Amino acid sequence: MVFTLVITDFGVPKVIGGSYNVLATDIFKQVVGQQNFAMGAVTSIMLLFPAAIAFGADRWVQKKQKNLFDTRSVPYQPEPNKTRDGLCLAYCSLISIAVLAVLGMAVYGSLVTFWPWNKALTLSNYNFAEISTYGWSPFFNSLTLAGWTAVIGTAVIFVGAYGIEKGRAFAPIRQMMQMLSVVPMAVPGMVLGLGYIFYFNDGNNPLNFLYGTMAFLVINTVVHYYTVGHMTALTALKQLPSEIEATAASVKLPQYKLFFKVTLPVCLPAILDIATYLFVNALTTTSAVVFLYSTDTIPASVSILNMDDAGQTGSAAAMAVMIMIAAAIAKLVQMTLGKLLENHTQAWRKR
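Now predict its structure.
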């Protein structure tokens, strides 16, 4: 996962990479800078190879995993150990400090008048209406994109994972669906974006009306981050003992009733995780949507790149801070809902 994300990343090398060229930024230069879509597609194929190799290695390792849960399984609860727990706390504290230092510099940069020449603090960088022709629209576009991606994506992913894992018929079709559901992990966002351009931006395509709309970005983002959500849903579904389906079948309980009365409540923590994952990634995604937005649907992540290119570093940092705040609020909402639902749906874990 780390290898795939790093080799396909666009935002970081675009902003701080300088003259150090990577494949993702080269695709952007070919398509946006030179309007050379053919060369961009060729470079995309080159980028696809190493990501596909890493993905294949991951799938080979995962074949060794087995389901070890049954109806008598209970979660392991380690006993407190001051030495071990203290070392773990120190390690996690160092990681947290490193992350907070980077985020803190972003917040500080958003308050600086003109980095690095005038370091007087100001809130003028947050006045996007005077800085950019788009104003606050990119931020609200990102919230809209993230909200719809979380709602639609979570429903599609969980129902799809349930059909694959708990289905009782059409085994070959379910196996094919399982294979297809993990393909997006091996497809870089830049490649995905170019593929959508070639497919949807064609007057003869009946789906051409979606091009440039918010629905277009939502579909692309759900597909881009489908695999991780799918794996999360499968992991949660595998924790349910197979005896439950057998018992339900023996008493002739319809599968849809088993889904709503047992499966859905038990898997609510995983569903919240998937929704939060999709929401946060939709807020921050750049590579998949950088080719697909229109003037009415430009997301905040792309707006940050544009402002940084224009030398408006403080305003770019301010927009980044707004994205960070939105993501933090989403995580707090997830934690609050998870705590409220834990006592009602997860009592079985505390036996």
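The chain has a mean pLDDT of 83.
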